[in-house]
Amino acid sequence: MKVASLPREDRPREKLLRYGPSYLTDSELLALLLGFGTKGSSVLEVAQDLLCRFGGFPGLCSLEREDLLKVRGIGHGKASLLLALGEILSRGKEMEDETLEKNYGYLQGSIRLVEEAYVLAIDSREKVIGVRMVAKGSEDGLVLQVKEVLRAALSFGARAYVFVHTHPSGAPFPSKKDIEFTDALYAASKKVGLRLKDHVSLSKSARFSFAQNGLMASET
């Protein structure tokens, strides 16, 4: 049956918009990505056939371009999409293995001429599950808002996070303003069920941890 022939509430796109992506089956998710089927087969049938033939998303996304093009109904457009999906899944797996130390190194290696602030969302194993820039400075300095930091951490579904900001020039030691902002951030995080694990300031060659130096609100 073609997607257009299904009751509106049973169509993959409508189900996703109403209930969220977790409500869809694997074949419905893949059908949304593929967009359309082939002559004689609906996109849902094509998606189901691909998943069954290659053992789900892991098997399907591990195929090389040449192998994909040999599959009936897969042209260059769909092959490119599936290759991109495979790369996204691979990068997602790599992100699961990311540690705080690795991310501190990445950020130190990319310090620019102006200050920047980041949220590093972490899980219970201290693995980084998301990174987001929340502020970028100018010649006048860095303007930070507590609500923007909290919004970024919550967007990853994290229960804890590390706040990081860079010091492009000089040592990474905190100012009075940095300490006051950390206290405000800790209090606001607690109110919304988040744990501010640490505030780390980075220069190109050094690092300063508020937690390790007893400057977290929970320790004062």
Describe the overall structure.
It is a single chain. This protein has 220 residues and is α+β, with helices and mostly antiparallel strands. It folds into 2 domains: 3-96; 100-219, Cytidine Deaminase, domain 2, CATH 3.40.140. It is built from 9 helices and 5 strands, in the order H-H-H-H-H-H-H-E-E-H-E-H-E-E. The longest helix is centred in the middle third of the chain and has 21 residues, at 76-96. The protein is elongated, with a radius of gyration of 23 Å. The relative contact order is 0.08.
Task: List its traits.
220 residues; 5-stranded mixed beta sheet; Cytidine Deaminase, domain 2; alpha+beta; 2 domains; 9 helices; elongated
Task: Indicate the topology.
Elements: H1 12-19, H2 26-34, H3 43-54, H4 56-60, H5 65-69, H6 76-96, H7 100-109, E1 116-122, E2 128-136, H8 146-155, E3 160-166, H9 176-191, E4 195-202, E5 207-209
Parallel strand pairs: 3-4
Antiparallel strand pairs: 1-2, 1-3, 4-5
Approximate helicity band: 40-55%
Number of strands: 5
CATH class of the largest domain: Alpha Beta
If you consult CATH, what is the topology of the largest domain?
Answer: Cytidine Deaminase, domain 2
Q: What is the end-to-end distance?
A: 65 Å
The CATH superfamily of the largest domain appears as Cytidine Deaminase, domain 2
Taken as a percent bin, the fraction of beta residues is 15-25%
The structure class reads: alpha+beta
What is the CATH-assigned architecture of the largest domain?
Answer: 3-Layer(aba) Sandwich
> Runs with pLDDT <50, length 5+?
none
Instruction: Give the overall form.
Output: elongated
Q: Indicate the radius of gyration in whole angstroms.
A: 23 Å
How would you sum up the major sheet? Answer: 5 strands, mixed
What is the tally of helical segments?
9
> What is the average per-residue confidence, as pLDDT, rounded to a whole number?
84
Query: How many domains in all?
Result: 2
Helix-strand sequence: HHHHHHHEEHEHEE
For the biggest β-sheet, the strand order reads: 2-1-3-4-5
